[in-house]
Amino acid sequence: MLRLMRISRQLSVAVLLTGALALGACGEDSTVGSEGPAPAPGDTRAELEHIHGLGVDPGSGGLYVATHYGLFRAAEDQTKLQRAGSSRQDIMGFSVVGRRRFIGSGHPDPSESEPPNLGLIESRDGGKSWKNISLLGEADFHVLESSGSRV
To answer: Is residue 108 within 8 Å of residue 89, measured between CB atoms?
Structure first.
């Protein structure tokens, strides 16, 4: 029961964060390459202006935020987000599959141009690294949902 309350609290924080960021970005198109260069690495506020997905790791209770400029994490009972790994790829579709295991899709880091679409990607280390599973260069899924071993 206590664990469920913690997850509920983290999701509440995530919803509030998403709402605040959405209001701040109203009327702006923040797509890659649309209006100027990508935010400088480390400019967390700018990197969080465009959120694509949220998820809670069932192992750690950490909140993960998939953005236009990479994946961020807030440990359980924390509100400050830290980058998960070094990638600044655009993680559009995002779903937590299990402990430290995520799937995603989208576009490469702004400093890279190929392939234009990441296909289906997977992380088994909490978002520190990603590998291609299928459709590299052919697809970018904007929504991914997982249940057990199915996507």
So the answer is: yes
Q: What pLDDT digit, counting tens, does each position of 98-120 carry?
A: 999 999 999 998 888 788 999 99
Q: How far apart are the first and last CA of the chain?
A: 28
Do 111 and 57 meet the contact criterion of CB atoms below 8 Å apart?
A: no
The single-letter DSSP state of residue 79 is -
Q: What would the 3-class secondary structure string for 98-112 be?
A: ECCEEEEEEECCCCC
Short-list 101, 100, 93, CA closest to 117: 93
Q: Output phi, psi for 93, to 5 deg.
A: -75, 135
- Taking only the tens place, the pLDDT of each residue in 3-12 is 544 545 555 5
Handedness of CA 71, 59, 141, 24 (dihedral sign): negative
pLDDT tens for 76-87 read 888 889 999 988
Which H or E run includes 45?
helix 44-47
Output the CA torsion 51→56→57→59 (10° steps). Answer: 160
